[in-house]
Fold these 3 entries.
Entry 1:
Amino acid sequence: MLGRIIEIVENQIIIKLDIDINNQTNLINLHVILEDDSKKIVGEIVNVNQEKMSINIVGEIKDNKFLPGISIKPSFKSKVRIISLEELELMLGKQQQNIGETFIGFSNVYQNYRINVSINELFSNHFAILGNSGSGKSCTVASIFQKLFLSNSKPPLKSSILIFDAYGEYTNAFASLRQYNPSISYKTYTTNTKYADTDIIKIPLWLLDVDDLALLLDVTTPNQLPIIEKTLKLVPILVGDNEEAIKNKNDIIARALEDILLSGQTSTKIRDQIVAILTKFHTNELNLETQIIQPGYVRTLKQCLFIDKSGKFQEIELVTEFVRSFINHDNTISNEKTSSECFYTLKDLEEAMDFALISEGILKSEKVYDLANVLSVRLHALADSESRVYFEYDEYINRNDYVRILFTDKLTNNKAQIVNFNINYVDDRMAKVITKIISKMVFSLSVENNNRGNSPFHIIVEEAHRYIQRDRDIDIIGYNIFERITKEGRKYGVFLGVITQRPSELSDTVISQCSNFIVLRTRHPKDLNYIREMVPNISIEIVQQLKGLQPGNCIAFGSAFKVPVVMHVEFPNPAPNSNNVDLETIWYQ
């Protein structure tokens, strides 16, 4: 018996000690049983002095099961004692690791006590790993997944884990998994186009929809989306130089010219706009040098645009009739294929967007022209930049096959369980776009799967505060893909894992939908306050403990843990390349 209850305030119990505290080992964070007849209430010691002890109620044991939370309070006659091993196992799990469980780490409170958790409870929910730089986040991630594949005799060979690796750290930790079990495969892609030691990330351009291109082109207003929609409708029609494509190009140019000719503007403005369009958009049949043949003479289209001294456009009827000869009035432009069903390049997309601009009569409004033209400029800049390589896929492939190939080990032709995308060599904007596009592709594939949830995906985002933010996606395209995944992903088998040192910069929706948290040392007051406000079932005592945790030590809580667990995660072997620079060795070697 530790003592007797002298005060009960909400979920805190004050004990008058009957023991000599000086003869005891450290009691802080140990669990106790407050027993009264058949009731067993479980509490955690949070404070001790020479005379008194403070205990927070964490749950109760009923029918040989631990039930977290508070449903009843102890009576003053309750006996107070340290929890037994059998009772502790009901709360923290048994020491023997069973099938369907994975080993996480060792308890800091109960020496050498192994923390084994249910794979379903941990990985069938979204989770977050939080902590300051240097607190051991990368090592914790590496250790958790190494243990998942190696601590059990039956590794998860049908798992599909995507890691967006902000610094290229994890290859060292996972590349050797095959040595332990040849059925385990790890695959990596890189954004390093100059010194690529593995496959470069390449995304088929035709698999991008309006929303994807809006992200890629940094759309700033929903008013720009119709131009992208029009572009995607035109690209399968205009791609290539076959007879049908040329006919369609002529039709689009002619319709734009007809609108200008019938606009009622001044002759000079009509001529200037026609010249501007035909300078940029032309075919062999329809251009400024195309000959217009009349009885007795031949003139070029450019010559027919002459304006006399009185300011009159003398040949406007002739030019209009000539332009109309290229318009297909019987059949509007149509194509059986959609943009996702045909192969095309960035240059093809660029041309389609230019034709989309004139087909929408973009020259009629300077404001609309400015909004639309900036997309054309950005697309052109992308097509001429080094980043174009990420969208240069060699041959046509559909989305299902693309995702399948992402998870296929080229060496063995077997399924790769872990696929790492090293996004270290691009700026944050491009890294965010790549991360969102691939995540959305996987999510869409899962949503369309008739056998819902039979092919689950886990998306792990390192430095998540850089890519999963409270950005303007919702204002532009109506949703943020990571928020959609956290709200809807569980029922389709898509789960998100966020790793970050700045949780306060994350999307509130994403962090609020996480069910499990592993929190390492966190000291920034803004982040501590954010964790306290956003994370469910976290006490002031836990928040205070986060400030002083040693690297590799953490507090884990959520659906996989019946009570918050203070533990240390074993150092991974091999470790990720996340060590600090050793200046002493470098400077003085």
Entry 2:
Amino acid sequence: MLKRFISYYKPHKKMLILDMLAALFISVIGMVYPVVTNNMLNKYIPNKMYSTIVVAGIIVLILYVIRMLLRYFVQYFGHLIGVRMQSQMRQDLFRHLQKLPYKFYDNNETGRIMTRITSDLFEVCELAHHGPENLLISTVMIVLSFTYLVTIDWILTLIIFACVPILIVVTAHYRKAMKRAFDDRRKSNATINASVESSVTGIRVTKAYTNADREVEKFKKGDEEFVDASARAYNAMAKFHASTTFVTDVFNVFILIAGGLFLYSGRISFGDYSTFIVSVNLFISPVTTLISFMEQFQNGVSGFKRFVEIMEENPEENSPDAEELTDVKGVIEFKNVTYSYDTTKEVLHNIDLYIEKGKKVALVGPSGGGKTTICHLLPNFYKLEDGNGSIFIDGKDIRSLTLDSVRRSIGIVQQDVFLFVGTIKENILYGRPDATDEEIHEAARRANIHDYIMTLEKGYDTEIGERGVKLSGGQKQRLSIARVFLKDPAILILDEATSALDNTTEVLIQQSLDELCKGRTTLVVAHRLSTIRTADEIAVVMNGCITERGTHDELMNADGMYKKLYSLQFRENDFFE
């Protein structure tokens, strides 16, 4: 993990070296004051060297001005290095997130992921800047001040230094407790973010069901967990700081007693004693800085650890020697396909399905039967394990093809349409980013949405809001259809594309879908069976198996599950009519 962290410094090597040199000079200049103080008390003042006193003061002042400029450099450019490292980590993490399989997002909430890409990496940024700087300045100051103190009186210095092992023991003791506490605090923070993201996204549902109090209660529970975790973290931190501060206070007690005795016995002069008191603070200060740095170190390490956890998630990868799927005809075959999301239960069992080029096959059946899983397996969203069958496009096993080439050949229209924040044009362009305005308009015409767009004040440049909140369900669905028209795939998947729409809108959308299906191999998951009566073949999927297949008329004559579903649905329609 350390090697990975250090690798992010490489692009900023020159700036880091300059930053460390500046920090080094800051430390060295810090040693000037006690040296001048010693000379003042022991030489310049007793010998009445008034001009030397003034010159020495001016030199110290000039050095302090230089140190001010160096501190500006360290603060500005040091933080800049940290921010740029944070930016690179964020980009790497976001890029990696794009490559992770569906399973990762099935098991991780959006809010938790957002925490890792924002607040976690901010803590890493602070560590990236302050870590090397604090370590260098503090180490140099400890070495230089210790060396100088030895030149004043080595016995008194060793007495002071004897307290350092106690500090190390205290630090090591509380460090583990702090690490655990801050890890728990960070997890609780992720829980809060996940709760906020979920609640804000579903605010319309919350209002519709008047469940604001319940959402507040859920948030309160997560917030209380965060408070408890923070209390434990700050308790550990308080013990840590109180104990270490007490040890450093003991330093001053030892100096007061031992120094006073040495001065009384004539072992050291009053000037040396005064200089020692001044210089020992230069020794204690970096020690306390390192102690205080432990809190920031724990935060940064916890954040980077959580960053690494995601970065070590296995991304989707093409199989060795994977080839591009080109000149796609659209012949699809599922052969003995068995699949389960985990080891507890099979979702699909020995599925055999053959779809000829340009044909439309519909999947029907009760919810949870496996219809959507079939649709997710075709674009390789979920990987088939060896021995669990094969899926072929144009006779080629999709596992032997590149993921991108398979997915480029497939267009998907789902019940839950996802639109990105941005304009209508940007959302349609998602189908093919290099399309021209004329191609975008043509795709919109074929999706029966162009005329509506032109009635808007800004037309295709109209902002649609988060997830298309400013559009109706039918308008959002037509935009998703326009997106697929622009993509122009050979294979089409319609996953209950009209089930969430009212009857009038469904008829209009169905016209767009019928236009979209022309010349394409189409796999339809249908809830409303009236929409798939003209399909070339209908397969009934129940409990992970295909139990019936045939045309609408053949299945009605077979008097099986399809007929029961169809009759039940139309009885319900008659009832509501």
Entry 3:
Amino acid sequence: MPKKQFKAESKKLLDLMINSIYTHKEIFLREIISNASDAIDKLCYMSLTDENVGLSRANFKIEIALDPSQRKLTVSDNGVGMTRETLEQNLGTIAKSGSGEFKATLENAEDIDIIGQFGVGFYSAFMVSSNVTVLTRAYGSDTAYEWSSNGADGYTIKEAEKETVGTCVTMILKEDDDNEKYSDFCEKWRVTGLVKKYSDYIRYPIILDGETLNSMVPLWQRPKSEVTKEDLDKFYKDKFAASSDYAKVIRVDAEGTVEYKALLFVPQKAPMGYYTTEYKKGLELYSSGVMIMTDCEDLVPECFRFIRGVVDSPSLSLNISREMLQHDKQLRVIAANIEKKIKAALEEMLREDRVRYEEFFTQFGLQIKYGMVSDYGMRAQELKDLLVFHSSRGSYETLKEYVDTMPEAQEYIYYARAASVERAADLPQAEMARDKGYEILYLTDDVDEFVVSILGDFDGKKFKSINDKDTALESEDKKEEVEKQTQETQDVLTFAKETLGSAVTDVRLSHKLKSHPVCLSSDNDVTIEMEKYFATIPNQTEIKAQRVLEINGSHKAFRALCDAFDSDKERAATIVKILYGEACLIADLPIDSPSELANLISEIM
């Protein structure tokens, strides 16, 4: 029988379809099954008004048969089938979508999901097959036809025998090569895995060896009243390989301009490797139950990259291979809505399940903070209500809780930055604020100072570090006393600065200290903690704080320095170096020479 040529620029175009459009060869099974589902959809729709169809929804199915010895894979359906004419139109003309034309004819097209849009999915079979045969009999016809092709050389069509309406697609798999083991597509484990991955939510049973492989009705499509916690627990752990429970479930059922359903989970614990570049964010994306992407990054912002879940929408515009999205308005609308839903769910958990939220925040709070400072603080105001900080009260506090309980006389939101809560609580600069009854927020993450810097204030109350040059904690009398003492001991302070050389920008008497002898502060916008953070970044240009040694003028250590300055300059220099070493230890900064500091302490003793 002479072969007919394809009608769309023949060999070159088909070669492009087979080898360039699809990224993964395994996609072929999804496309063939989706076509079978479309064919059933058409006949199912006809059965609503045509009693001669003789089938109800429960009778429709897709069957898969495997014959490893013959390298044969067959996908059969009892759908609408094709006439000779539709075979010519749909399989003889590349990019001719019968599903698309059928849907266009329906008065209520939105009531039926036809997956096929482009008419190229069928040709993906040639990525794995040396020959494809389509045996089909159309509804209302007594004659069956067989379409056969080995690729771009063309195809044949002949009359054939088929007892029932529907279509069988038989693929003879290619010989294995170094790049692909095609014979695996005839193995039950491989086919089962692909059905579960891509076609689990096709609405008709997909049967192999008498076993239904697919779930058909996904959890997110079921009424909320029909989904138990056990269902959600199993879905979450199976779907996302989670070893721990989730903290919260978010369900979305959106209608209107953009229609979609979503089932999202807030994890309770960060998965292995979460804070590494290898971790992939994103939600699983489905179009009418067919899996399109495993990790659609565009659906969740970076600040919520911990969210796991699925989104299913018939409204999305897919590219020709259905492997990725065209970046269009629908996608942006869905992403924006999902972001709002996640934020609202986290705020609800913060209000109604505080213990669980705090556990969640220990795992993912850092992600929210990074989300606040990225993109020049674009989301800072949106996310600020999700923040909780360790507090001098011994608990986590939100910024609102802090402001609502501030004493009337308190002007600022005070914070202390250190590597841990314990170190922050031990900072000498914190003593004065605590003595006034002011709460201090303990900032223990590297990003925290950038967060408060971007926010600037909360409810009109500005943030102030207990290490600021002017903390507004001391009285005017105390300020005047320190200024007077500074003038009286200026020569001692100048001597101390000269002794330390380039290690410090200045040495001054402190307004901040109460019972401790010394502390370190900075005279520029780079704080001591920022300097330590920048030092950990590889290949980072050196960024330094302008270190200031602050000394408590009322402490006996300063009196000892003044006495030594008048009588023994060498001893005075030793005291200065010891005081600076103490300040570095308190600030958790490295000591240039620990042994030298130890010798100086021994010497002064």
